[in-house]
Amino acid sequence: MITLKQLSEICGVSVSTASKAMNGQPDVNTDTAKRIKQIARDLGYYPNAAARSLKTNRSYNLGVLFADRINHEYFALILDSIREAAKDSGYDITFICNRIGSSEISFYHYAVYRNCDGVIIAQARYEQTGVVELATSDLPIVVLDHVFPGRVSIMSENVQSMVEIMWYAAGMGHRKIAFIHGEERSTVTQKRISGFYKGCMELGIRAPEEYVIEAKYHSPKESGLATRRLLSLPSPPTCILYPDDYSYLGGLSEIEKHGLSVPEDVSAVGYDGIYLSTLLRPKLTTYHQDAETIGKMAVAKLIEQIEQPKKSHGEQTIIKGELQLGKSVKQIGDDIRGQSNNETGEVNAL
Asked: Which of 19, 60, 99, 137 has the least C-beta neighbours within 10 A?
């Protein structure tokens, strides 16, 4: 493999300029830096990681805190996007945990031990002491779907997405709409509940208390039990909104156990827009979250803090998704969107 000195001679620049270009330092002309990097790739030159760390005072290592098992396709897509974006920017990924061998250690001290330049808190119980310690530490931090004061957050559009779902269901004639949501302690859940009631208010729909049920994310069993409760009501809903696409499987099973079908007897809407939703029959109508953009933005915002520490970085970025239409919602009546409460009096009589 060629040396840095040989690379600089081939490029016709100083060793210092070649080094700065390879390390992504800003005081090299953009076109010159691109040319040097291209020649380096063509010749198979790669900078020594240890030497680069000494020169830049950075490890080029990003920590990612994901407290639970990665068994949810939505989070798997985010993590894959984080990995790819980090790789494209010349950074490695280290998963943050609270153990080194048999010894317990805080998330923050683990990140320091692994010499992470910064950390993305991708999924955690945000109220836990160890998570709060990490989030309020001196490290550059990006948090997904939660807000810590003074920290950069990347948020899905959890309020307006539910409003959009409600307006779509109302456009298909549904007035009796139930919502099975995830754990109430979650910031995401609180925002989605807020969006559900906002949609009800805008549409003049009153959702009875028994139509809004807590379950768990990514738990078909919990959503199945919640669906059973809804179908057992004297006036059951005609449309059920589920916490995520995977949990909908439990609801679908319970609907079929009652001798009913989707969408002929009960309409359903999922959330996340994972690949599974496209395979179901009927194809599930769901709100697709842009996991790829969320992952890329998280990496970009973290690297920006690392490489430009004096810059103001902004505290919150909201990533909008889109309603992905399937065949799981049946038209059962007139479009009630835009009608007054008087025109939808039957709704308020539930």
From this structure: 99
Length of the chain: 350
24 within a domain of the structure (yes/no): no
Instruction: Please tell me the distance from the alpha carbon of residue 242 to that of residue 190, in angstroms, as a whole number.
Output: 15
Task: Give 94-110 as a DSSP string.
Answer: EEE-SEETTEE--HHHH
pLDDT in tens, 246-298: 999 999 999 999 999 999 999 999 999 999 999 999 999 999 999 999 999 99
Question: Are residue 131 and residue 218 in the same domain, yes or no?
Answer: no
Residues 192 and 333 in one domain: yes
Say yes or no: 220 and 330 in one domain: yes
CB 59 within 8 A of CB 113: no
What tokens appear for 68 in the block? 């639970």
Four-CA torsion 131, 136, 138, 144, nearest 10 degrees: 60
Show the domain range for 219. Answer: 160-289+323-348
Return d(Cα 17, Cα 275) in angstroms, integer. 47
**CA nearest neighbour of 33 among 50, 48, 16, 56:** 16
Are 96 and 227 members of one domain?
Answer: no
pLDDT tens digit string along 1-41? Answer: 678 888 888 899 988 888 888 877 777 888 898 998 899 88
